[in-house]
Every structure is written in structure tokens, then in C-alpha cells.
Amino acid sequence: MGKPITGRSFGGCIRYVVNKQEAKILAAEGVRMQGASSLIQDFNLQRKMRPELGKAVGHLVLSWSKEDLSKLSDEIMVERAKEYMEKVGIRNTQYVIVRHSDRAHPHLHLICNRVDNNGHTISDKNNFAKNIKACKEITLKFGYHLGEGKGLVNRQALKGKEKIRYELYDAIKAAMKSATTWKGLETELAKQGIGVAYKFRSGTNEVQGISFEKGEIKMKGSAIDRSMSYVGLNAVLNWNRRVRQYHAAKKANQPLPVRELADAIRQIEYLHLARGGKGLWATLLEPSGGNGSPTDFYYLKKNLREITKILKRNGESIR
């Protein structure tokens, strides 16, 4: 898991990371490794090439599960940190990699200069989305322990933008359990001070993306979680709507909307497979309820088993 941070002070960041008890400098590029003072001086010298850039400090906390400890030497952690930097676009700049041993899980701190060696700014645009993608790719590539989702993250330990991200995640996930329309979702989120903003394709009324706002923070749905893109959320709203129609028709002893339900399931199935998952069907019918799924649609299981039988009786296949 990675936690990217941008800051203004190399001094404060480096002193915290390097001077901590049992901190161990593993590698560096473009800076002297003698200690905090030398590092601060070297980083600040290069940042002078872009004096207008306030937040020149790039700081990443890269963590593994404690189950991976036996797989991680200092050298391997450095290799993974370098691979991470390449994946998120941190290149041609100063950096220092420091390992900490104050927690049960192995982790390191990477401090880099957002002013590169040629005086160009290293972008922090879409930092969180790029971070999630890079961490997942590295985890799967090297067989590291895959966390069981955001439900296990300690919310009390979060701060700043990351804290807001998880607040948005929890609120959207809760609202999506019952919402059947975008208007209904907007109303429910507004009660918690969360706004919804849509991005339209140029010159049309076609929605291309979605962002959520809380206070001064605005984040794309896909940056909060991959399942919370506009396409992903729209698929779940469609499913919820079809399920409600199904129960209403069943109660009124009317023809059941079987084909519509099948179409809704196919849509979500496609999203799961496109994101590298096993598919909605395989995930939701697991005894675990799909809690290890790379997306958070497992609450759809509530109605899936019963509807599955109806679809089969009507000759509908979603495979």
C-alpha cells in the first residue's frame, strides 16, 4: 500500500523520516547520505530552480503486510521503490529511501524532489489513482499479500486528503446500497455535506465522468475507488432499480422483469472482468460473499441467489 503526500518543507519531512529511532537510509540519488542536514541542503538547492513551486516535497510511505516480511530484504525494498517511482512517473530527480522498523509491518519512506534535475516540475496530478494502480501491479507481480479491502483500514489514523477519501468511500458505499437513481444518490450524499459533479463530453449531454466534493476537497470517483467511476456506479444504480422492479412485480403477481435483470447483471459482470477480477458471478457466489473482491459490489449478493433461479427457469444466461 502506498500513501503519497506532497509538502512544502524538506526540513521537517527529512528530519522526521531520517532522525527517527532505527531509521535506516537504504539508497539515494543526487543527494548526500551523511545525514539529515546534508539531505536538506541538497534538496533545497535543487528546488531553487523552481522557486514558485510551493509544494516541492514528494513524500511516499510504501507499506507491505507483515506476512511479507520474509520476502523483503533492504535491497528488494529499494528495487520495489524504484519500480513504483517508474510506474507513477517520478524520474530524473533527487530522492532518498529510508526504512523504518517502528511498526509490525515492513515499510519505507521515499522522499523525492518534485523539481527534477532539469528544473521541470514532476506532476502530482492523479496521484492517488496512479498510486493505487502501481501498488496493485507490484503486489500481483511479486505475489505479496493482498489486503482484504478498505474495510480493514484504520480510519482514525488517517489525515488530510486520505482521510477525506475514505470518508467519501464509506458514504458513497452506504448510499449505493439503496439508491436507484443519480438524483437519489445526490440527495443522500448531500445530507452528509457531499456534492456530486459530472463531467460531460465536449458539446454533448453525455456524462463522461464523476467527481465528489467534501469541504475544499474534490476527487474523481475512480480515485476514491475503482468501483466508484461513473460507469461502475451507474451499473449498480441500474441493478438496484431492476431489483426493486423485480420485487414490486413479484408482490403484485405481475410478470417479472427477467430480461432487464439479466442485462443489469451482464453489465456489472463485464466491469468486474475488465478490471481483472474473476467476474461478478464467481465473486458473489463465493461462501465468503466476495469480500476479497477488487471492487465493492459484494452487497449485491443479497438478491442474487433468488434471482439466479428465476433467470435459469426462464432460459436466460448471463455468461
Question: How is this structure best described in words?
Answer:
With 319 residues, this protein is of the alpha+beta class. It has 2 domains: 2-147, BirA Bifunctional Protein, domain 2; 158-313, no CATH class. The chain is built from 11 helices and 8 strands. It has helices at residues 10-18, 36-47, 74-88, 127-142, 160-176, 182-190, 221-224, 230-251, 258-274, 280-284, 301-313; strands at residues 2-7, 24-29, 57-63, 95-100, 107-113, 194-200, 207-214, 217-220. It has a 5-stranded antiparallel beta sheet, sandwiched between helices. The chain has a 3-stranded antiparallel beta sheet with strand order 6-7-8. A hairpin with a 6-residue loop joins β4 (95-100) and β5. α1 packs antiparallel against α2 (36-47), α3 (74-88) crosses α4 (127-142) and α8 (230-251) runs antiparallel to α9. The longest helix is centred in the last third of the chain and has 22 residues, at 230-251. The protein is elongated. The model is unreliable at 276-301 (pLDDT under 50).
